[in-house]
Amino acid sequence: MKILVTAKRVTDYDAKLTLTADGKAIKYDNVDYKMNPFCEIAVEEAIRMVEKAGEGEVVVVAIGDDEATTQVRAALAMGAHRGILVETSEDQLDSDLVAQILVKICQDESPDLVLLGKQAVDGDSNQVGQLVAEYLNWPQATFAYKIDLNGNQANVQREVDGGVETVALSLPAVITTDLRLNEPRYASLPNIMKAKKKPLDTTTPEDLGVDVSSAKVSVIGYALPQSRKAGQIVKSVEELVQKLNTEAKVL
Fold this sequence. Notes:
13 strands, 28% strand, Rossmann fold, 9-stranded mixed beta sheet
């Protein structure tokens, strides 16, 4: 069993971001970076699968500049076996380019299963997993709540609006993970030290035959959400109804 899993580098979701004066970029000064929490869940699930099977390999992939090595090493410290960094300074990769890169890696690595976070908390696109499955012509299950492997089949309970839906997939397949799938482990100090010696290969989109200048989506600009107005204290139900009607205009 070989499982390919992603570990995207994202800004700390608790950080307060600011924009440049022209609104065309985010100021990243003094902003911490972490592994995308949905990717962290995917890494944990991949490790658990291999531990349960008693054999296998977890290969973790990150796409970004040299700093993304930190997230690969974090996944290796959790228990992944090998890392791949697709190094690029291109910060405007869209979901389609990311999917193309992962498809090329899948063709080289021939994994039995690809696990991705359902979305990244920076772009929130929720597209890469579906695109990878489409390009590879593999079955897919998104928003995984529970995953059971049985030979060459994966039974996936996935979160939907009405509850939980169960689907069966033949392997190889692509699965994206949701929040309630598991609780990622903390890496122990010995495992952090061991992670420094685990293999980490570096490649580029060009080496993989992917043209990063062919993005289908471009960012025109950014805008911060409007600040919330202070609340009001009303003296009666009648005054509340009046304000909801004339000021909030929700009645």
